[in-house]
Amino acid sequence: MGKDVIIALDFDSREKTLAFLDLFQDEKPFVKIGMELFYAEGPDIVRQIHARGHRIFLDLKLHDIPNTVKKAMAALSALDVDIINLHAAGTKAMMSAALEGLTRPDGTRPLLIAVTQLTSTDQERMDRELLIHAPIDEVGRILTTPEHYAFLKIAEGCNNRCAFCVIPYLRGKYRSRSMDDCLYEARTLAEEGVRELIVVAQDTSRYGLDLYGERRLAELLRRLCKIDGLVWVRVHYLYPDEMSQELIDVLANEPKIVKYLDIPIQHINDEILRKMNRRGNGEYVRQLFTKLRHEIPGLVLRTSLITGLPGEGEEEFEQLCDFLKEYKLERVGAFAFSPEEGTRAAEMEYPDTEIAKQRAEQVAEIQSRIMDDYNESCVGQVMQVLCEGYDPDEDSYYGRTYADSPDIDGKIWFTAEKH
User: Is the model's pTM score more than 0.70?
Assistant: First the structure.
């Protein structure tokens, strides 16, 4: 096999791809990278394959917006790609945008061999994939959120192996992005006008353990807060038993970090947590939430719960409801258990689906009253609001306080003298 042979890769993970290419250590065939692999692993997979001595043919599908394609091509031109086949609207404007974006400062560019029309099915599929926010490193990214906020994904995959969750099978083991990579992207986003940065991963509190041998989320957050232009830094998906004192201190004392924490607990019953392979127990969660309330004044807590998990009877569900009434979390998402094929939980006995749904509705009713009380407690306060727009029909602006994460929480409506 020689360099004039093309290998088309359709693996869905970095590990499988690189393991396969290791079979060709002595011969370096041309490698074609498809959309599935590129959007699962990000541009870093291109550099890793190129570092093995392969030339690269990138086959991608993008939105049919010339400005979007131009930005995407500018990011791709910085990679070690030799040929690009771009699937998008085949218009003159699209071709011009692609060529302009691909042209490097020295005038060179990868060979763009085709700009073809996407089918409506392809476009819908691409829309979904862009919302995944797969890791994108310092070469650039396509921003799919409004210009004032963005998600910063600091890791991919998960090592927790909860019995009900299929994520580790779909996304692989936990893989942190380098801190320099995360900071570069955050600075770039701030320069482009992003004011709120939402730090996410399947488990943000584990960040750095695989890469540096220790958890380094606290350090990353401190450095993110030093970036000019960022006003708010919000943290989602912290695992309860990985909340170190160092991390709590950073969350409490950094002014840019909003006092809003998303800590999914799934349930509060000890036996259910054990069956679902969740570390810690209900008492640990209670003590943690009490500690966080004490050390972070004004804290808003969000969690997610699953009703109808294996082992949940009336007594266990009542325990969950009592917990909510006592601890009064400001934000709660409740979901009825839906067994995922291939998971251990799917093989266990669990309540009827309708019962699980009814219980989720009961949790929502309890939480609605708690949220009403919280909203009432805010009346008369002066709060900072991130303005997101103006509604001429209502003659009002709308936005969010620190207590409101985009899409999942509410909005604040307000008036001002000037539009």
Answer: no
